User: What shape does this take?
Amino acid sequence: MTAATTQSTLGHDTPQVTARAKVTGKAQYAGDLKVAGMLHGKVLRSPHAHARIVSVDVSEALALPGVRAVLTGADAPRARWGVSHKERRILAEDVVRFCGEEVAAVAAVTEEIARDALDLIRIAYEELPAVLLPEEALDDEAPIIHDGRQNNIAHEIRFERGSVAEGFAQADLVHEATYTTHAQYPGYLEPMGTLAMVDPEGRLVVWTSTQSAFLARARLAAALERPVSSVRVIQATTGGGFGGKIVEDANQLVAGLLALKTGKPVRLVNNRLEDFLACPTSLPERITLKLGMTRDGLIVAKDVHIVADCGAYAGLTSEVMHVSAMRSDNMHRLNNVRSHATLVYTHAPPHGAFRGFGGTQMLFALNSHIHMMAEQLGLDPAEVHKRNAIGAGEVSVHGWKVASTGLVECIDQATAALHWHEKRPAQPDGPVRRGRGMAAAMHVSGNRTIGNWDGSTVVVKINEDGRVMIHSGESDMGQGAATMLTQIVAHELDLPLSHVSVMLPDTDVAPFAIGSFASRVTIVAGNAAIVAARKAKARLLDLAAILLEVPVDQLAVGNAAIHVREAPDRQLAFADIARQHIWRHGGEAIQVSATWDAKTVMHDDKVYGNVAPAYSFAAQAVEVEVDTETGRVTVVDNFVSDDCGKALNPMAIHGQTNGATVQAIGWALYEQLQLEAGRIVNGNFADYTMPTADAVPMLRGGFVESNDPNGPYGAKGASETAILPGAPAIANAVYDAIGVRITDLPITPEKILAALRRRKEAAHA
Amino acid sequence: MTAATTQSTLGHDTPQVTARAKVTGKAQYAGDLKVAGMLHGKVLRSPHAHARIVSVDVSEALALPGVRAVLTGADAPRARWGVSHKERRILAEDVVRFCGEEVAAVAAVTEEIARDALDLIRIAYEELPAVLLPEEALDDEAPIIHDGRQNNIAHEIRFERGSVAEGFAQADLVHEATYTTHAQYPGYLEPMGTLAMVDPEGRLVVWTSTQSAFLARARLAAALERPVSSVRVIQATTGGGFGGKIVEDANQLVAGLLALKTGKPVRLVNNRLEDFLACPTSLPERITLKLGMTRDGLIVAKDVHIVADCGAYAGLTSEVMHVSAMRSDNMHRLNNVRSHATLVYTHAPPHGAFRGFGGTQMLFALNSHIHMMAEQLGLDPAEVHKRNAIGAGEVSVHGWKVASTGLVECIDQATAALHWHEKRPAQPDGPVRRGRGMAAAMHVSGNRTIGNWDGSTVVVKINEDGRVMIHSGESDMGQGAATMLTQIVAHELDLPLSHVSVMLPDTDVAPFAIGSFASRVTIVAGNAAIVAARKAKARLLDLAAILLEVPVDQLAVGNAAIHVREAPDRQLAFADIARQHIWRHGGEAIQVSATWDAKTVMHDDKVYGNVAPAYSFAAQAVEVEVDTETGRVTVVDNFVSDDCGKALNPMAIHGQTNGATVQAIGWALYEQLQLEAGRIVNGNFADYTMPTADAVPMLRGGFVESNDPNGPYGAKGASETAILPGAPAIANAVYDAIGVRITDLPITPEKILAALRRRKEAAHA
Assistant: This one.
């Protein structure tokens, strides 16, 4: 007889452990939270892109029955907040710099009263000239948006590796083009929301929708001028982040300020329009790319100029632009690269972090470019990528140590799925043309970027019933962190998932963590979870060896128990061991902690250095139909192949790649923020057209398991890479279908028709 | 120049860290908690001491608008709960065993509706013969209260050490008397209360007024037939416990059941009458004590018989009676002791743990006895205690290792304060007579009693601002545990108290702990806190040594910073070190855990063994006035001297000794539960007369610092010992004043007058 063991879920489709609470409506998002005496917050936003606040009169608003506080810039702390540039007040004073900027905040007994009170706040503005385009902002005559920022330059990156001039001299083909990318709204189902209150000890307690409870705490403390220890942030169930819920939005800060000023709990939840106005959208970049290639398709030189528009406040955009300027260089074997990137303030609503984090922008340009050059050289663009692809064990031009890569396999898998090498798409009769395109991408799994730590600490507790609780400060915003941690700890301890639970991050409870971005959680927290679980298991085994009077190496774990390998009937349930671990001389409950930190470096001042413990890769192939009469582009087939290292939960990764594909389709074809004089005029899901089911083909995808030596069981991050190749694959397919190269996203029917018209006119000229 | 250091508060009067929230009304007791959708619970209690439930009809109650659930025994889990005897259902079914037993529970949208619904529950009872006195219950003909408990005996203790027969043979004086003690209601300001809800994952979350969150969790899990891990208990601010809030009351269980059945948050807060009916009151014991003494006052034999009335359910009373049967033996150098104690079920409301935990009962008898014998031998009772007092380093008759004792010093201090040896009280003119009495006592600090562990784990976190958070599962129910932990950690890290905070126990967060009873928290959690704080300090020092490039032994801590001893300007703030502890290769936040377990043993089956890491002692002297016309006794002066080892917070210990003195006065003179046919008829503060300010003298007290080698900085527990000598000191003073020995508490005017009358009649006879 052998004792039964629990089937590990690792590598098997595993529903999210958070799913039941979500689908039954029981999960508590910030907007679901209600506490006694709670007030409702509302924010008054600037109607102007640039204006001076001449006078403020809140008396009428304050007089409205039910209103408990009306705060303006004068009531807000003097501290300025921001990521690298501390430049933004919680509520604007004197000057507003974008249309949507927080100017006043109300707390009232109902949301309706709070909303009505906004209408009673009298603010006189003197409109000032607004600069809405980065090219204008760079003009010497342009108004300065932030004091001391000459030419409105927020940040500038310049580097050259190898010799670009020598590289181009070796090239058989040099191609240069300019690409423009636009801002995408993250479109999470749950708008930003916060419930803030002051606890009996005077500490500020904040439940919030966030990708990082600890970064939220640090920002709240700094912006509200309080010690970090006087702030407690608890992550509410979070309905998506996509980069928008890191640290760039004022929602938490306004809610915290209202709670501190009123002494009451205040809930502040954006409605969709407010969220459009307040949320950072992805960074629009104008990318001028020049590549040199040999006739064999080897890239010998790259020169890129980027001008990016951060909007009124820089937020995380310096880091985003940094990624655009250099990350994709590491995908290929390059020697000669040069980047010059300039981040420019405008009076547009602030841009910021977004799934892909600057990779999408540059990979749109690069993949478009490679397609064009391959065509000129008579090469298959897929082959060009493969010929240039960096190999496992190699060090990239920027010093990245690529321990594993499935790039070539991803390209093969994606192209094969669309029969890339077998046949051309059959062209139907009529005005519709079919075409195929592909693109390749790379991303980081973790990134030693915000400081010299890219680690995570996981605490594993074993309760007296032998069940396990995990404390981690890493956020599950829907991407599956809690499920991943549960799977790993359950696997290591050979327990069913139901015996393991993960507490939502609470900064008073969880070990310090950075949060969910840079596709870091699986690799850093996953590795920490393995170590912590093994430590906990060792505690169980050590005591079981004493109790069973057998050496540890003769024991085995299974079925929530430890048994003697050769005599499985001699066993002790985890519950028994856990209890006896306490109830003995010198005992204590089993509660262990483990930290895993990536063996990476921060890049040096020449942006050189191995910043991530692993790098993930992806490739995508799509087939589109272009209606040459209407200009409409439809993605009719697709396959995205994701090198996730090891698919710990295939179902979850399919969810990620499917979502990424749809979000990429939205960015490439449909979604477009419409601004008039700097004002978002389509801030709702009727007018901001995210892809609906009929705009999306059957979503297909697969994995390549490159088994990264640094990843937990070989796994790498699988949240972001798959969004990267979508837009250029579509642009390439459009080109393949109709011979028209669209370089400015999104690829709208108007642009298709205009390009077709231009080509026709040129042909007739 | 030397760097400033923070003044340690250890040994100095320190306001409770919880005081501000409490006095400003911000502290959240269970009854203050409100959450959205919360229902209010109410409990229907048996009107009979013993009855069969013939029929139950809840239809009318359920039909009342606003009622969400009406539960009876049939709806409650089959599990039976209790401490050593599992014998009680959450809601009674078939049989009720005391007047006040929980029979049905209602949840409704308002408390008023819930109360009204109780009136609509139709329960038909068949009254059964009730046994209300233990002597009756022991009768062979008495009805059996619990199946299988022959003669209604719940527990029996018998032991003999040495030879009592030989001891009495050596005695010059043998004295025997019987003493009766009565039940005291703990009289905390906050009645029991719980808010229970089911979280989105289906776990039961309970905020409750408790002395032990983890024991509460274990009991909830067992009684509600759920895994421990599916229950989360969070201690609400707790307004006193005095033993009543350990694990003997059904409030939490009923609230939990209502929450599980309704799926809604349910708050169940006792009003005062309900609390009188539901709360365990102290254990009434009938003690027949026989002592043998030499003419020098040395005690050579002790024989005691105890009959204790546990009421309808045994709860913790076996352990309480155990203490009565043997603890006070360890105060003196005894060789020949014998105890026979019998715990008997009756149909009275259940009795249980109470401050002093059985010590008060026996020490009333013992101190009364010694006073009488000393008088007969012409000795000073204070001198008799001192001659018999166990010394430091000695092992008592039951194997207790008394590492420190200040008993003699306590006796000297208390008697000196009342000029014991200098003068007799002046007798005023008129009917009032003055008298003085003293008594001595001992108690445990910790107790290896509920299992083979008497430890505590403390977690110390240092946040990025250099401030500290402590996690402990030990409860602060007002006695000052949080302040003690704060003081210790602040002292070890040389921080102001404001930089240290303690989280209320939360079983999902705090390390496993047993809770607050047996005066254990200062010694076990205090020691753990020292170790944890020193570990955290070592982390700071180790990193500071690297950063300052100086060996650790050249560094010093002070002013929330670490400086080079010989160059104090070279320093790093804790905040800087804490941040750099994270932000470096292999870094992590400072979060350390330490466990301290007492080096004690569980007593063997002959109740022998050193059960506590330290033992505390106390003595009290009082002066009373007895009005011989009205029988009224007034305590006019008192001094209680407490051997607390080391007074970590003199203000807090004075608070404890003052409170203990008043509670002892109440028990001795004023408080008396009135029962009619087993029904408490004075369950309110108008009729149950706790001492008011005019019944209490100027409260005087002092410490003896015996500096226990096992205590943190020498400290021992200081919550319970001071209650022990109060009642016998008063009884002795009454005897001293009027020559009347009252052996049955409380010492009411009626008893005084009756005794005076008897004496007068005897004198005239």
About this structure: Chain B touches chain A through 52 residues (CB under 8 Å). Chain B has a mean pLDDT of 96.
